[in-house]
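Late entry, written up from scratch paper. The run itself happened at the end of the previous shift, but nothing got recorded in the book at the time, so transcribing now.
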Amino acid sequence: MTDQTWLLKIRNEPVWRSPGSGRSDIHSFAWGIWPWMNWGLPLVAIITVGNGGWALLILLVISPVLVPVLGLLGSLPRFLLRKSGITTTPASITALLFVQWWAWVAAMITPPGATDGSPIPAVMQGLSPAPISGGFLQAVMLGGSGIAVMCWIAVLVLAIMLRTKTSPPAASKRGTLIAWIAAVMLPVLFVAMIWLGGAVTAQQRDAAGETVAEVQALALSVQAERALERHEQAQGQLSLVRGMIADDGWGISQRGIDRRTSFTEAVDSYGFDLRFHHEPLAEGPVDVEAIEGELIGQGWMKDEKGALVDPDGNVVEIFSNENGLRVSLLSPSWWGDSWDISDELGYGLDDAFARTYAYDEWPTP
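Output as recorded:
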């Protein structure tokens, strides 16, 4: 008879199935959706990151490389576990997976989109009934990305450690409970995070120390009256500079209420960007340094870019050469819709650009 003892040989490394691998529990569920999340999240990111715009085009171009790289990296811990004979997610890993996946989702929906025109609001801003500021979005994006990467590293380390085990890890009641808490509470925390973004944004303060909620509670007529007062104060500060240069002959380069709102911030705000120009003076170019020195002596200061800043926070710049001179003022920002306020004040209904002004004259906004 032919010697067939090789049929009796067995592998030195045992192949075993994890406890509960045949049951439908939270660990088996995580094991089953793990591959889908590894490959599905990178695909979803292509659509959600930037909410379209140029980001979509860039991600589509690099997706043949990006998606496989991210998918394989996400699959690495699971591959190591399968190679060890584990066929269900160990209890020490399940909760980490849920945290990792939800952290990636949070990070993916926070970047706003860029286009040739106005920015596109982030997906999170579209999910929120209240405005969410860009600062909050950036914090969520950085925090979510950091948490997701740390969880992936932890899962990889645990997968490597479990490969050295000679017996399958048993799913403890504590580990199962933690996994269930993560599975149930993380979606709740995700919704709470979106609500928190709107709540935090509503409490941000403008140059007057008022919150978004406080300003939005005011009637439009009151907001317009305040804007007019702030405009007069800003023009008054700029007239001090103009008076140190020339008594009259000033023309307007820019007027009105400057819209500071962007869809990235999703919060209406406004300020003033005031600009005047003057023909070259008969006595020659203006001594800008002498004017700046006099204003600094009156309590003004210079910012890090070398521009003058008055006590109200207005940034004033003076430009002078052989072609003429220009003075400009950029005010701080206040909450409010610049378009609605401009309509209330009747902006643009005169011929302000067609005339010249004395140093202490200026048009309405």
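Residues 4-23 have pLDDT under 50 and may be disordered.
(Scratch paper discarded after transcription.)
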